[in-house]
Specification:
22% of the residues lie in helices and 23% in strands. The longest helix has 14 residues. It binds fe (ii) ion (2 copies).
Length: 308
């Protein structure tokens, strides 16, 4: 079994996103993948962007979308689900002896309860008197669903989420990530079946092994960071005029990874050694660590033996 995984293309805010999408589909074809996984922040849910969804359909293998925090920048969760043709924002699917779980941590917990993250609501909540809000957050009902989903010993499990289950930097990771990891570890005490968790969102590259489970943060297919709001929705013309886009470091390649699983449930992740397109972090005095992880232009390769 072989699948491709990519994340954080941010189609609407990258001047060469169409070229990146072409590069991704070229790779999917060359690798003859069985299915495709997007870890979130793909594009806004507009009529025009239906063309992107149609490309996945036309490619002819199954595809599985994760909802990222930026998917609901301008649309409600219901509209986003409709756009991506998903019945639910968290779900699972099975290939051979592997079950793949897609989590949705785009929730905000306040002292009043839990609600789905939607940029507009989030700002409203931040402006209230609440001292503490938790976001991203995996609600109790979803944790219970997850516990049930990974119960069966006949499967191995790979877990996908947009936000990290390990990163503690500046509230980027899932806020109750330790609770989630404990649940996975508790399940593995019976027999080790949860082998790997993969996430996007941090626009960097990272691999951690914690209590027998690998946590892989997949780098963005587009860029490292962006801090000036005015550059949202910039056009080709603007990019031609300002080729360095000072607030954004672009990766040249549409970074992604190809994951192959053999008949003994050993997992091989083939990453990409890429390059920066415009400026390098050190040119502007940035370290090679951002959002708590490496921003080298790559996606790590990794071998995971199921019996380890
Ligand atoms: Fe992102
Ligand atoms: Fe994100």
């Amino acid at each position: 079994m072989k699948f491709a995984v990519f994340t954080d293309l941010h189609y609407d805010i990258i001047y060469d996103s169409e070229r990146r999408l072409n590069e991704l589909f070229d790779s999917f074809k060359k690798e003859a993948v069985d299915f495709i996984v997007d870890l979130g922040d793909l594009c806004h849910s507009t009529d025009k962007n239906k063309d992107i969804i149609n490309r996945f359909k036309e490619f002819g293998v199954p595809y599985y979308f994760n909802i990222g925090n930026h998917n609901t920048d301008y649309q409600s969760v219901d509209d986003v689900l409709k756009f991506y043709e998903l019945n639910n924002s968290y779900y699972s699917f099975v290939y051979d002896n592997f079950k793949f779980i897609v989590l949705d941590a785009n929730y905000i917990k306040t002292p009043d309860g839990v609600e789905a993250y939607y940029r507009k609501n989030h700002f409203d909540i931040e402006n209230t008197a609440y001292k503490e809000i938790l976001h991203p957050y995996l609600p109790k009902s979803e944790l219970e669903w997850l516990e049930n989903e990974i119960r069966n010993d006949k499967y191995y499990y790979i877990i996908f989420s947009h936000q990290s289950l390990t990163n503690g930097f500046m509230n980027r990771g899932v806020s109750n990530r330790e609770e989630v990891r404990k649940l996975l570890e508790k399940r593995n005490e019976r027999s080790k079946k949860v082998l790997l968790c993969m996430n996007g969102h941090d626009h960097g590259d990272d691999v951690k092994l914690i209590n027998g489970i690998y946590y892989y943060t997949l780098n963005s297919a587009s860029y490292i960071w962006q801090c000036i709001k005015e550059t949202y929705n910039y056009s080709d013309e603007i990019h031609a005029k300002y080729p360095y886009l000072k607030d954004m470091i672009l990766y040249e390649e549409a970074l992604h990874a190809i994951v192959t699983i053999d008949e003994n449930a050993n997992i091989s992740i083939k990453g990409i050694d890429g390059s920066y397109q415009n400026i390098e972090p050190e040119n502007i005095g940035m370290p090679n660590i951002w959002n708590g992880i490496s921003i080298k232009p790559k996606t790590s390769s990794l071998i995971i033996k199921s019996c380890n």
